[in-house]
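Record filed here:
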Amino acid sequence: PATSEALARARTFLSAQQPQGGTSLLPALTQAYAYAAEQPLNVLVLSDGLTEQRERQPLLAGLASRPEGSRVFCVGVGNAVNRPLLEQLAEESGGLAAFLSRGDDFERQAQLFRAKLARPEATDLAFRFSGVEVFDVEPQRLPSLYAGSPLRVYGRYRGGGALRVQVTGRR
């Protein structure tokens, strides 16, 4: 029960805690995947992304075992954020990453992020090139396209002439 005595003990306990270690994201993601049902699952990770170095590879491998159709969205919070990791988690699952630090307008940023989450412009994107030999295209698996977010694709070509690019996806 939330008696005044119990609340006082809780406050004393919490005030004595010291931050230590990193964030363990893999167990949290694994638990979130258990909620997958017939509909797509969107997982929101709110973290600084500062994990133990030994967890990085298992964490990225865990993305491959996520339920079909699920996406991971990351919000990096703070001035010391592992931006590359959070971006990779989001991009490899078809999600999106955003970052907040001291001084940002939290309400505005939250509204913009929510608008993107609610309706991606296109998913399951693919390019088909014809007319010129195109190779070394990166990323090999295209992320979803969200309003206001750029989609960058890099590649090389051999020869010259007219190039036709066909873009397909789901809207």
User: Anything to note?
Assistant: Helices lie at 4-15, 25-33, 56-64, 83-92, 106-118.
